[in-house]
Predict the structure.
Amino acid sequence: MSTSNDPHAAHWGALAAAAETIGALCTTEQARELCAAIDRLSDAIMRHEPIDMVLHCPACGEQHVDAPEPSVEHDHGAVEFPAWDNPPHRSHLCHGCGHIWRPADVATNGVREIKTQGKNDSVRRS
Ligand SMILES: [Zn+2]
Ligand SMILES: [Zn+2]
């Protein structure tokens, strides 16, 4: 997936331009601290890392866990799936049934389990 079809590309550009303008105005100690904070904030937004989620295929129910994978080749050399280095993606391909779906408007990363749980969650992990 290239970043050129990122619908937020214009926003990232505007953010970078704003950060540059603010940077030029940062002369006092306080302003410099403010700038550093804005830098960190825009960095985090620009990276817009995929959100870890427990994903299940809506068609067949198989859990979808994202991870880099080698290419899948048949014995006679035809490549069924090219190698996958797990770049950020929004649409997920179910390995069980081939269903493709998008659980959110932002990039998500299918994980086996998320890191936290609520104390009132119906299903508790041990
Ligand atoms: Zn499926
Ligand atoms: Zn996926």
